[in-house]
Each structure stands twice: as structure tokens, then as C-alpha cells.
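User: Predict structure, ligand nicotinamide-adenine-dinucleotide.
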Amino acid sequence: MSTKQVIVETSLSSYPIHVGRSLGSKLLGEIEELMAKGARIAAVTDSNVRMAQAAWFDSLGDRVPVLTVPAGETSKSVSQFGEVLDFLAASKLDRGGVVLAVGGGVVGDLAGYAAASYLRGVRFIQVPTTLLAMVDSSVGGKTGINISAGKNLVGAFHQPIAVYSDIEMLKTMPPREFASGMAEVIKHGMLQDAALLDLLEANPIVGPEDERLESVVEWNCKIKASVVNADEKETAASGGRALLNLGHTFGHAIENVAGYGEYLHGEAIGVGLVAAALLSESLGFIAADDVARIRKVVSEHNLPTELREALPIARLMAAMRLDKKVKAGVIRFVIMKRIGQAATIESADMALIEEIWRQCGAS
Ligand SMILES: NC(=O)c1ccc[n+]([C@@H]2O[C@H](COP(=O)([O-])OP(=O)(O)OC[C@H]3O[C@@H](n4cnc5c(N)ncnc54)[C@H](O)[C@@H]3O)[C@@H](O)[C@H]2O)c1
Ligand SMILES: O=C(O)C(=O)C[C@@H](O)[C@H](O)[C@H](O)COP(=O)(O)O
Ligand SMILES: [Zn+2]
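Assistant: Predicted complex:
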């Protein structure tokens, strides 16, 4: 069985992303090698993944303690973060220890942030089990949790030592969660690769049985790795890693104002991508036809293109002001100069942003 490999190279580290099918024994091999060198290993997962991957967890035996957190966005919290840290201490991880994050973006962000913080940083391996985590969150080292003021407002950049993306795992994914992952794939096409968007437009990817998934995951990892390799910590004065935030200034505000978990991350980003397209059109970069095209691709991947129920514009605007891209009080937005080429803009007319919220169903 062939395994594809994408290498992420940052200033301080380089690590492989293994993409393939039935990678369980390859991962077990790496765990055994680490343990043979004296590393203690502790795994963090969530309740759904623990059940869906019961056989693989059983194969770990008693050698690897496992913490199972409740499934869902609300686990990216300060209190759950504390529980993971207590678990790592109880598992007697020392500075040579390794944390395994086995799950979707929630587990990856939470366990990754615990690995970044515990003993001021221990190694971790990402084992993404959702489409979203395979194409996006397991790559690039952003880790963190939410606070009531905003999404991902607390966290650290901490790169994993390896990523294992086993496409077989996607077979148990609920359709709504699968669609949520496709939002980040659409985003990658919009921001950097028009050919990817063409492919999605011609033939949408709507379920885990799609045979193109292995190559699409690899393709997306390459897109994300290329952006991260150039600007790991999002410090570029313009463009750079911030481009991966296309649709997110809007999307994160929706997640926060609606209440974490009400919209899946990808659902909020679906609306956010349409909003970013509308903003790009209003600023004269793309045409109305391009916006219609984005709307169609988002909708054909079973994602919302507008809010399910009106949310208050004032609260959405307030949430946006806490976005991490804000500089000197000014919200920076990511727009498309054309499909496949994104850019950051240094300021935007707030009346225009309010109007875009209105067009997305806010009031
Ligand atoms: N760090 C980053 O760069 C980055 C990038 C994108 C998104 N994110 C974050 O990722 C999170 C969303 O990640 P997500 O969409 O993976 O959500 P998630 O982790 O909540 O997983 C989605 C659901 O699917 C279940 N699940 C996971 N794997 C499964 C499987 N193989 N079979 C059946 N069910 C399974 C989970 O239990 C959960 O209920 C958000 O918090 C978002 O902010 C982070
Ligand atoms: O990796 C990145 O950089 C991204 O922006 C990817 C996003 O899809 C992801 O949702 C990320 O967590 C957002 O980061 P944030 O810094 O805006 O919280
Ligand atoms: Zn995202």
C-alpha cells in the first residue's frame, strides 16, 4: 500500500505528514521506536474517536495511557486544557515524553497546546481523524483553545514531530462533519490554487467514499505547508500565513456569537468564504460571477452560504475587533485579488463590512 509524504519545514523543525490508507501499524511502529528510546507516551482523544478507533486503541495496550475528552468544540476550553495538563503529569511524562493527539481539530488544538505548555514544551504527534484535521489543523503547528471573548484567543505555535493521516478513518465520519472539512479545502482553492477550485466545481467531493480523497488531502497539505514554510508564525507584514485566514474573520465571529458548537467550524467558514468573496467584489477585485461561483461551490458541498438565523451585527462586529489579525485597532481582512490569489488589506470601511453581514443574513 503506497503512502504519500509531504514535508513541512519551519525555521526550527522539519516533519513528515504521512498520507495513506491503513497507517495504524506504521504509527504503532513509530510509537514503539520512541518507547524503545525511553520516551513516555500519553494519548488524548475524544469520546467519538475512542469508540470509532477502539481496535487501534486496544492495540496500544497498557503502555500508553489515554485521556478521552467530550467530543465537540466546547472541549477547547480553559477547564479541559487544565484536565489535559493534569493527565500528562499523572502519566509522568518528562521532557522526553510525547503526546499523541488522536482526533479532529478540537483534540489536535487542545492536546497540541497542552504539549506546547507542559514542562514548557514536549513533543507531540498529530493523528488527524477528520477531513478538516487532515487537510488543515494537523499541519502547521497552530494550537490553542477558545475563551468567551473569542475563538482561539489563547494558544501557541508548536509543531508536531509527525502527522499520520489515515484516509480509511474518514469512513466513519458523519456527513455534516465531512462537509465541514470541505470548507477548508474550498478555502485553499480560493486563496492559492484555482485548479483545486475548478476540480471542486466540476465534481464536488461530498463523502468519504470519494476516491480522490487521498490525493486531495496530499494536495491540501502541500498548499498549507508551502504557506507555513514561508511564514511560520504569521509575522509577515502583509500576505503570508494570514492568507490561511480567508473567511475566518467573519467565520470566527459567527462561531463566537452563535455560541461555540452551534455552527461547526467549517459551516461558519462556509458563510465566511462567501462574505470574503462579497468583500473582494465590493472592493473591485473580483466579479459578481466569481462570487456566484464561490456561493455555488460552497453550497454544493452541503455548507451554508448565509446565517441559519439572523445574528446581531453589533455583536459580530465586536467579535471581529478581537481577531488576532487586528493591528493598532484596525481589523485586517483577507480578500481575493482573483480566484486562486489572496491578499491582506490593511483597512476596510466598517459600514461596508456591516452591509456584507446584512447580505449574509445578519441584522
Ligand atoms: N490549528 C489549526 O490550524 C486549525 C485549522 C482549522 C481548524 N482548526 C480547529 O479545528 C476544530 C474543528 O476540527 P474538526 O472539524 O475536526 O472538529 P472535531 O475535532 O470536533 O471533530 C468533529 C466531530 O467528528 C468526530 N470524529 C472525529 N473523527 C472521527 C471519525 N474518524 N469518525 C467519526 N467521528 C469522528 C469528533 O468526535 C467530533 O464529534 C475547530 O476548533 C477549529 O478552530 C484548527
Ligand atoms: O493555520 C492557519 O494559519 C490557519 O489560519 C488555518 C485556519 O483554518 C484555522 O481555523 C486556524 O485555527 C485559524 O487560526 P487563528 O489564528 O485565526 O485562530
Ligand atoms: Zn479554519
